[in-house]
Each structure stands twice: as structure tokens, then as C-alpha cells.
Specification:
Blueprint (H helix, E strand, L loop, with lengths): L14 E4 L7 E5 L3 E5 L5 H15 L8 E7 L2 E7 L4 E2 H4 L5 H18 L11 H22 L6 H8 L9 E3 L8 E4 L2 E5 L6 E3 L8 H8 L1 H11 L7 H24 L5 H14 L9 H4 L1
Helix pairs in contact: 3-7, 4-8, 5-8, 6-7, 6-9, 8-9
Length: 294
């Protein structure tokens, strides 16, 4: 493929197609220096907004790649950003020593802390209003799932009882798709947080909503390291755990609705993760999940 029309890489010598990942984007490593991501169907203005947020993070933490350019190639939007070396965390983590898993998690946690230090504009819509609308939309669709899976019957009452926790929550820059497949590891170190396609402003604690679904499934030691590094190895507050438990419950609702309505091939896996999450919080009667305290 001829990329000579993209000025920054017109003289590049080596283009390697990257086949990992779940999106329909086409990704190329360019001279081991840049990552070219071509996104058919994407809105270029949305990509430009993502680039602005991504570069704000890069300015304070280089584990997040810098976006050098957003443009059009063969009528498809593209993003050109730093190429960060490393292997997929989801693949690498399980084979590492448990202490290394924890260390890498703590390194990731510090990057998330840096990311979350960047607040949303003062006129940004409130987190409470956005999230209440989401819960309201998902609730009737999840009720039909509960009818077939009575083990989920405690989830909606728990959520409704605890929605008051969303009041006056801050919003900051958030990756919003945080899981081990979006981190890179090289020589037993965390090298990069990638795939910023969902970056947005959100409650910082909401960043961890997939913890029981994906991070703990790969490595509980890594997951614990994330939270300990994020909290500077100090005791984690009960306020954090209250919100994390609520977001974990809301994520079950979201994931199950998606699994039943669209992601059919993921439905069985998601149900096993949902049951795992319910068990970790003892049917949402336990504040701190078992995986963290064990």
C-alpha cells in the first residue's frame, strides 16, 4: 500500500501490518517509530478530539503515545501516533512471576493516576446526569434477562439503592476501555497504555469498572498492583470501594445486555464473568471484593 501521500511518513522504509485487536481499524507499524491507524467509517472530528485528550496525557506521562497527525487517506480517516514497543498484556501477564505481575500493575496504576489528574472543562455535563440516563436506558432491557437468570435478581435493586453515590462526582480524562489487552509489556516492565479510541471525560473511579471482568481474570496480582499503585500504596478508602462496587454492578447490566442483544458469541463468557463478579462481592453484600483481600 502506498502511504507516500501522508507527509510525515512519505519516506518511511518499513511498514508492518498489525493484526492484533478487536476493532475493524487497519494498523501499521511504520519504521518501528510510528503507528498508523486507519479507521473506515470514523468521524475525523471525533478523532481530532481524541487526539487532543490523548496528547494532554502524553505531556505528563509518555506511557501514553503522542498523536502526531490526524488526516484522510484514500477517503478514510487516519491517526498517526507514536509506536510503543511491547507485547499484549493479556498474553504476557499470566506467564510472569506473581511479584512481577504486581509490579507491572502498580506501574499501570500510576499512569492511570496521572491521566485522572486532568479534569474536564467546568461546563462539561455532569457525570450524574449522564450515568443516570445510561442506567435508565439499560434497566428495562436487563429485566428481561433477569427473568431467565434469577441469579441476577439482586443487581438492579442494589444499583437503585446506591445511585445516590453518583451525586457531585468529578469528571476527568479516562481511557474508558481499560483492560490487559490495552497495555504493553517489555522486559518485565509496563511500556504503554494504548487504544485510546474511547477516551473521554468520566468519574475516575469508573475507570476500574472492568476490573473483575477482565483484569482479575488475567492476574489478581496485577489487578491488586493497579489499585495499590494508583493509591500510592496507602489504604484504599471505603468511598472508593462503594463506588467501585456500584460500577461493577452497572457493568454487569451493560455487558449482559450487550451480550444478549448483539455480542452473541460473547454471551457465555460474559455470563461466567458476571457470576464471578457477583461472587466476589457476595451478591453485592460485601464491600471489598474477595480477590483484593485474599
Amino acid at each position: 500500500m502506498d502511504f507516500s501521500k501522508i507527509p510525515l511518513i512519505k519516506d518511511a522504509q518499513e511498514f508492518t501490518l498489525i493484526t492484533e485487536g478487536y476493532s475493524n481499524d487497519q494498523k501499521w507499524c511504520v519504521d518501528s517509530k510510528y503507528l498508523l491507524r486507519i479507521s473506515p467509517g470514523a468521524d475525523i472530528h471525533h478523532l481530532e478530539n481524541q487526539a487532543v485528550l490523548t496528547n494532554k496525557i502524553h505531556a505528563i506521562d509518555t506511557h501514553v503515545p503522542k498523536v502526531h497527525e490526524v488526516g484522510q487517506f484514500n477517503e478514510h480517516p487516519y491517526v498517526l501516533l507514536d509506536y510503543i514497543p511491547g507485547e499484549n498484556g493479556e498474553v504476557v501477564l499470566p506467564d510472569l512471576d506473581k511479584n512481577v505481575q504486581y509490579k507491572i500493575g502498580s506501574e499501570v496504576g500510576r499512569t492511570l493516576k496521572n491521566m485522572h489528574s486532568i479534569s474536564s472543562p467546568s461546563n462539561y455535563p455532569s457525570w450524574e446526569s449522564r450515568w443516570l440516563g445510561r442506567v435508565e436506558s439499560l434497566t428495562p432491557r436487563f429485566k428481561s434477562i433477569v427473568e431467565r437468570h434469577p441469579e441476577y435478581r439482586s443487581i438492579l435493586p442494589f444499583i437503585q439503592k446506591n445511585l445516590y453515590l453518583l451525586k457531585n462526582r468529578p469528571s476527568c480524562i479516562q481511557h474508558y476501555d481499560f483492560h490487559p489487552g490495552n497495555i504493553l509489556i517489555e522486559n518485565d516492565h509496563f511500556t504503554g497504555l494504548i487504544d485510546m479510541q474511547k477516551i473521554t471525560y468520566a468519574d475516575p473511579i469508573n475507570e476500574f469498572y472492568k476490573m473483575e471482568y477482565f483484569n482479575v481474570q488475567v492476574s489478581p496480582n496485577y489487578a491488586k498492583g493497579i489499585l495499590d499503585g494508583y493509591h500510592d500504596y496507602t489504604e484504599i478508602s471505603l468511598d472508593f470501594w462503594e463506588l467501585h462496587r456500584l460500577y461493577a454492578a452497572i457493568h454487569i447490566v451493560s455487558a449482559e445486555v450487550w451480550g444478549h442483544e448483539g455480542g452473541i458469541d460473547q454471551k457465555d463468557k460474559f455470563q461466567s464473568y458476571s457470576r464471578f463478579t457477583i461472587n466476589q462481592f457476595n451478591d453485592f453484600n460485601q464491600l471489598i471484593p474477595k480477590w483484593y483481600t485474599s
